[in-house]
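Per reviewer request, we include the raw input and output of the structure prediction for the construct analysed in the revised manuscript.
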Amino acid sequence: MDLEKQPAPQAPPPEGCLTVAIRIPVRIVVLVLVVPVRIVWDAFVVVGRFLRDSVLRPLWRALVVWPCVALWRYVVVPLAKAVGWLAKVLVVIPLVWLYRYVLTPVGQGIAWLARGIAAGLVWLYARVLTPVGHGIVWLLKGVGAVLTLIGRGIAWVLRGIAAGLVWVYARLFTPVGHGLLWLLKGVGAVLAWIFTPIGRAIVWCARGLVWLAGTVVTGIGVALYWIARILLVLPVVALWRWVLAPLGRVLAVVGREVWDALGHAWRIAGHISLAVGRFLGTLFRWIFVEPVRWVYRTVLTPVGHVIRDVVLRPVAEAARSVGRITRAALASARESVRQARADFRRMLFGDAGEVGAVRDVRAVGETREREVVALREPTGADTRTLGSSTTALTKD
């Protein structure tokens, strides 16, 4: 059903021989002119993108984004927190205290006072103003009744006066009015019998003059119309119909074809520019990138491995061995000093000094064993190390 409702595709309008004749040359010329422009345009686009990604964007980040982030993170946020804390300490907490311990009791007192005043006003209204109002209403009702009686009397007097005036008008002024009306009717009839034919003659003469003037003006207008049409309109119409319209159609066809050729040539030039760019990229890769990569993989990497395995690792092992020997020598010297101190204490104090010396020697032995385990050196009963004599002394 949907396929039946869809309108049939319209066929393209027929093209004339002029369109077919100028299409191919125009497209060839435009393609030749547009290809260099498109290649230069694509080159500028590539350079612009490279500059944007490699220079402008890092520069923008370094000069704008990172300073703004640092300013926000290390200046604005701490300053805002400090200001917030100061506002809380100096404004919010005092305001809360003021509201809680000053304004709330004052408001409650004002509310209690307002309730008392309202209760007094209600009592005053109910006990004083209401009876007084009722009395005033009763008094006003009495005064209204009196005024009503007075108004009725005045109305009866006024009705009598009006009736008298009506009788005087009907008996005195009506006959005089009828006489004046008859006199005016007679004067109007005389004026109509005299002035009506004169007015009709004047109107007929005016109509004749108007018709004569209209005829003269119409004739002059018709003559001027035909003169202007013959001298101006017909040449302009002929120029438009036989010169400008065909020339405009030709220029429209040429312009449309040039525009279509520009679009077509721009797209083809894009493909050509893409092929040229890929060719140049491949050439650059094979001339510069691949040799550098080959040198890095084939020459620099093995040389670096040889230097690492032959020079750097032995030097590092020798440095670590020197460090271990130095630490062991220092530990042995410390143990010798402790042992001499223990012997000196034993010579001075006897067995107690001997017991203390044994304890010191045991502590030194344990420390030495922990150092040896940390250095991952082999230890055993038959292994002779720098601290073997101390260990034997400890066992004895």
